[in-house]
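Single Protein Entry

Contents — chain, fold
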Amino acid sequence: MKQWIIGAAIFAGSTATAAGQSWVGKASYYGYHGRTASGGHVGALTAAHRSLPFGSRARVTNLGNGRSVVVTINDRGPFVHGRVIDVSTHAAESLGFRSAGVARVKVERVAGE
């Protein structure tokens, strides 16, 4: 029983957000095929953010439908006023806004990253 409680505490801690690390605004998506600012490539669940460190992870929640995904930050942007994150095409599909192009989202940095 003690091991189960410790495991649950570790899991809960790994999915919590870091204090003060959340943003609300519009998300867009991109299918860029070159190198990103980190030197990597756009992957299935990657994103561009202005200030989160490369390699950090963030939970993106579509406020219109409640869907969320965890993405890895590997690029800089977006550079359009009012947008807080650019996600990969696959992430936009998972969030349910690919056909719309943009969505109002909440971005939360996942603690421990």
User: Anything to note?
Assistant: The chain has a mean pLDDT of 82. The domain at 2-110 is CATH 2.40.40.10 (Barwin-like endoglucanases). The chain has two helices and six strands. The beta strands are 17-30, 46-48, 57-62, 68-75, 83-88, 102-110.
